[in-house]
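User: Fold this; tokens only.

Assistant: Input:
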Amino acid sequence: MKCTCPEWDQDPINYLGAYICVGCGKPIKDNKMSIKLGQKVRDTVSGLVGIAVCRAEWLHGCIRIVVQPGVDKDGKVPDSCSVDEPQLEIIDNGLLIKEPEKRKFGPRPDVNQKETPRR
């Protein structure tokens, strides 16, 4: 992971969980940290556990994930909470949706043709 700026070619520094270029000071995206929507995550600061339901990427590189906790003891749904991505750790895949199978001919199910009768 390196910055593309011409001023500096050293490794970036890790500042509060985000990688920053020493030369230009800009954040460098780290694809290893990417949390996918539907994964079960834990906030390392508050201990909040829930499902990642929204991802917001702000103008200057801040990536925030909205975490929706599960239903509480009274059966009420608590409010969701927005957390910086580096502050979260992945617990498991939670509700991660599998990619649908690729279809050959559009949205309808592919039809398997019967063999033509031989004469």
